[in-house]
Amino acid sequence: MFIDVPESNEPNMVRAFALRPDVLRAWQELNGAIKEAADLRRYELATLAAARTLRSSYCCLAHGKVLAEQFYDAETVVQLPGGLDDADRAVMAFAEKVVVDATSIAQADVDELRGHGLTDAQIADVVLAAAARCFFSKTLDALGAQPDASYNELPATLRDAMVVGRPIATD
Q1: Angle between helix 57-70 and 40-54 (nearest 10)
Q2: How far are the Cα atoms of 11, 25, 34, 37, 90 from residue 86, in angstroms, in the given order?
Q3: Which of 87, 105, 142, 150 could form an SS bridge with 116, CB 3.0 to 4.6 Å?
């Protein structure tokens, strides 16, 4: 961690916000509101796409783990967006575009998602998931938070594929 925070048994993401726990609580509230209205599987796909684009190992590991435990197997998660239907591949691509350059999103991008059957509310959920991930991932990485050592327990293929930026902490 780049900032001086007390050692604790808390996850590194919590420690990163030790000087501003009010911001962590606000983030958790915002993220909870986004997830509450969204389809959880699509939220996780959009979040993983955003996290990979941001090169956030912490968020890739966390959300790759959720996808592997709740929706797919580890080998499938490693291959994403491979193996997905056209709609879910488009969701992941759209989330990546939000991260890279949201100003480049055009009506045609929204229309493509509509063409795959997404409603405007579902499209907004993808935008919210990707945009919120930008805040959280960039905060963790800028403060030097490494993914927790517990991620070393994930299957090696999943773990190695999800480490796209900072390495996993050793302790």
Answers
A1: 150
A2: 36, 36, 23, 22, 6
A3: 87
Q: In this structure, are residues 84 and 49 in contact, taking their beta carbons and an 8 Å threshold? A: no
Task: State the residue range of the domain holding 103.
Answer: 21-162
- The phi-psi region of residue 105 (left if phi > 0; otherwise alpha if psi is between -120 and 50; otherwise beta) is beta
Cα 124 off chain centre by? 16
Per-residue DSSP letter, 119: -
The number of folded domains in the chain is 1
Alpha carbon 46 to its chain centroid, in Å, reads: 7
User: Tokens representing 35?
Assistant: 């997830």
Are 2 and 143 within 8 A, CB to CB? yes
| Cβ atoms 64, 158 nearer than 8 A | yes
- Is this structure's pTM higher than 0.90? yes
Residue 122 within any structural domain of the chain: yes
Tokens of 139: 């905060």
- Kindly report, residue by residue over 95-117, the tens digit of the pLDDT: 999 999 999 999 999 999 999 99
Give a yes or no: residue 16 inside a domain.
no
Q: Is residue 133 within 8 Å of residue 99, measured between CB atoms?
A: yes
